[in-house]
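Researcher: Next sequence.
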Amino acid sequence: MERSLGRWVAGIAAVVSLAACGKRDGGPADPGAPGAAAEATAGAGSRLTIIGRDAAGGTVGISSAEILLSAWGEAKRLPLEVRDGKTALTLDLAWLVERWPLAGDSAHKGYLYMKAEGFAPVRSEPFLWIGSRDPASAWEPAAASDVRLGDGTAVRIEEGRSGTLPVTFRRPRPRHLRLVERDGSPVAGARIYAALFWSNENHCGVLSGFEALGSWTSDDRGAIAVPDLDGEYALTLDGPMEGRPEVRVFESPGTVSWDPRVLIARLGEEETEIVVHERKRRPIEMAVTRGGSPAAGWILFMKLREPACIDDGIHELARTGVDGRLGVSAFIPEDCEEVWLAPPGGGRAWTGAPEDLPDGPFEVKLP
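Model: Next structure:
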């Protein structure tokens, strides 16, 4: 099943802001990590078999498995057949293209996503198909596929050979986020939307591959309980907002630079502390005179520090009335690089630093 950001918004009213250009890539697996050795395969293609086990090495039956696919601007979920608690796939590009023709043009990585009854789901690290273009090797066709799990288990499959990947499932455990400000004080009342993450490969870095897990509000300790997952989470702060700028932003490792309301990260075993900073709102009350008389029709502009993908970052804040006055009710200095006044005919007559604007009413006198 394909999912898009719009479908998530429609389903649980979570919005990830259209943000500055960018994407997030994963690298191939480490072929030196522990895993089962590959064997020659006669006429069966490059085949990977996946088996489940528990922490003690006992057999665990896989209940469902799928490939989470990522292509430029697209994401797809491809179910795998599970038989006798095991699953398998062919890692030759032709096998993938037959099931998803788009893969022949732009898809270059996928993730395994597996579930077993009574255990936490497992998502692998990203891997390439044999013959797909490898961005780490100047887009040359990949000669092998390295499939790795988050615990370091890995196997390399070369063309025409087979191998087995043992997946260790663990029992679910409590997972908590604790939201704190820069000074360590708890952030209560912040709403978080969580999802399993696998792709934001598109021109604007918007989430395109994800599975919504739910939304919660932090308590007085700043704590939130989230579903257990052996993989990366995409966390979004505060849900829908009218335009930019945001009020609360993440400041922990994994924060998406072009949209600081989004954090992509693995969580700690029990409680993960995440720094959340609130950008304070404040009003602007300005009177503009020119040559001693009220300047009507002048425009106050701002330039955003983190403009959206298709946005130059320059926005009109307010215009002076016939009395030369203007007001902005909810200005956030931290979001802005600079502000300036422009006359009705264009140009720039006054520039100010957002953090230096007076708290109360002030006057700008122009010659």
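Model: The helical segments are 5-12, 93-99. Residues 175-278 form a domain with the Immunoglobulin-like fold (CATH 2.60.40.1120).
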